[in-house]
């Protein structure tokens, strides 16, 4: 099946330098409905908690998307009934409030399971120690810029996707046709 790496990074990055960071942090340029229409059935959602509320993140970048935008995504996926979500508590170094973040993350996952019963939660990872709080349901084949390229040669995820997505789709045709594996890529529309 097809998966979108950092599904919600089409939102703007918060902060003064957000527009400067976007080329290196943006992994998708179309919204989740358009991603679904491109064939995505596996959505990679990265969050952390700010004032006890979930916010969308990618590594050190926080996006202008939070609980409302997440609920819209989950409502859509719940209606479709054929989608998987991988959740990531995307904090790379163990924070001072690690216990609180972990507790909030686990509670959030449980609330999503109750509120949206037709979403299959494929995985839930705490990134600072790669702890899986839900055993992965699907084998993930990650072929996006951050895992397959040297940043000296390929400067942005979009550049990488533009050059490689067609080849990746051909090479991993069996994965794309599987319901037990997912090809996770940047810029699914390319």
Account of the 3D structure:
- The chain is α/β, with parallel strands linked by helices and 190 residues long.
- The protein has seven helices and nine strands.
- Strands 1, 2, 3, 4, 5, 6, 7, 8 and 9 form a nine-stranded mixed beta sheet that branches.
- The longest helix is centred in the middle third of the chain and has 18 residues.
Question: In short, what is this structure?
Answer:
Helices cover 36% and strands 27% of the residues. It has helices spanning 18-25, 32-37, 67-80, 98-115, 145-148, 157-171, 173-176; strands spanning 2-4, 40-50, 53-58, 61-66, 84-89, 120-126, 131-134, 139-142, 181-185.
Shape call: globular
Total count of strands = 9
Class inferred from helices and paired strands: alpha/beta
Mean pLDDT equals 93
Q: What is the first-to-last residue Cα distance?
A: 16 Å
Helix content: 25-40%
Helices and strands in order, then pairings?
Elements: E1 2-4, H1 18-25, H2 32-37, E2 40-50, E3 53-58, E4 61-66, H3 67-80, E5 84-89, H4 98-115, E6 120-126, E7 131-134, E8 139-142, H5 145-148, H6 157-171, H7 173-176, E9 181-185
Parallel strand pairs: 1-2, 1-9, 2-5, 5-6, 8-9
Antiparallel strand pairs: 2-3, 3-4, 6-7
């Amino acid at each position: 099946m097809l998966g979108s790496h950092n599904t919600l990074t089409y939102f703007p990055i918060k902060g003064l330098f957000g527009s400067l960071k976007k080329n290196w942090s943006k992994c998708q340029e179309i919204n989740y409905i358009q991603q679904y229409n491109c064939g995505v059935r596996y959505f990679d959602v990265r969050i952390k908690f700010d004032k006890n509320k979930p916010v969308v993140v990618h590594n050190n970048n926080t996006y202008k998307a939070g609980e409302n935008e997440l609920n819209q995504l989950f409502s859509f996926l719940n209606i479709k009934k054929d989608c998987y979500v991988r959740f990531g508590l995307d904090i790379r170094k163990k924070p001072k409030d690690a216990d609180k973040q972990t507790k909030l993350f686990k509670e959030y996952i449980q609330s999503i399971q109750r509120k949206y019963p037709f979403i299959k939660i494929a995985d839930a990872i705490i990134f600072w120690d790669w702890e899986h709080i839900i055993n992965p349901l699907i084998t993930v084949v990650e072929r996006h810029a951050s895992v397959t390229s040297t940043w000296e040669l390929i400067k942005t995820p979009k550049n990488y996707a533009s050059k490689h997505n067609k080849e990746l789709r051909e090479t991993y045709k069996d994965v794309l046709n599987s319901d037990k594996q997912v090809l996770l890529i940047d810029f699914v529309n390319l």
